Amino acid sequence: MPDTATLLINCPDARGIVAAVSEFLYKNDANIVHNDQHLDAERGLFFTRIEWELSGFKLSLEEFPPAFRGIAERFEMQWRVERSTSRPRIAIFVSKYDHCLADLLYRWNCGELRGDVAVVIGNHPDGEKLARFYGVPFHCIPVAVATKEAAEASQLALLVREKIDLVVLARYMQILSPRFVAAYPQRIINVHHSFLPAFIGAKPYHQAFERGVKLIGATSHYVTTELDEGPIIEQTTERISHRDQLADLLQKGRELEKEVLTRALRWHVESRILVYGKKTVIFD
Questions:
Q1: 114-132 burial, b for 16+ CB within 10 Å, e for fewer?
Q2: Mean pLDDT over residues 118-138, rounded?
Q3: Is 126 a residue of the active site?
Q4: Does the global pTM surpass 0.85?
Q5: For 50-64, how does the pLDDT look when each residue is reduced to its tens digit (9 = 90+)?
Q6: Which of 165, 228, 248, 284 does the annotation list as catalytic?
Q7: In this structure, how many other beta carbons lie within 10 angstroms of the beta carbon of residue 162?
């Protein structure tokens, strides 16, 4: 993997932003390998993602923030720099359905996902065999109404101990508390088995079947304290018909869930996502 740096910027739109950033990188001998940008004209916001090779770049990533501060302050930027060779430590949460877990572990094992799956945490033991197969530690922490607070405390302690950077909910069928969500802001990715905002809650395919919908879908999103209301990262759909029974919806939905969760995780670890308000910008 080439050693590159990625600069992500969100700021009020103004003349000269691209010129100022490009000139800064040019003066420090950056070889830009990818550049993408977006303008939200309604809100007057500008977004950009710039990636460049670190070989030959004059500044270290430790020296970059103070050197770039003047430009950032002039244009009121929210910004961050990520390195392509950094590998975030990932925790996967799972309940009884293991299709998303299986897909993520397979792709991680094949080297398709930039990051290290450090631990799998389940509130049921069903995912243990799969995690052990891939050599990933598995911890079963049961969750019940009376023990939910203590269970989450144990989970958070485990995440701290494992130095986790990112949490992925691979069909984890529990609602996280505000305390848990606050510990990992914009670093918890969930897959919901519905094309949000339709059919929130625990049994969306059942609701879809009862309504006789002609499209079903799946959604990956960042977790917030509002159930299934976090910024959407990816969605996909599949057409169905009156011939499809509930079992068919469930089977087709599982394929969609794997797709959107894998793409969301990949885009996150490749620093392709910017969040603003309830929306996201996904860069090429």
A1: bbebbbbbbbbeebbebbe
A2: 97
A3: no
A4: yes
A5: 999 999 999 999 999
A6: 228
A7: 16
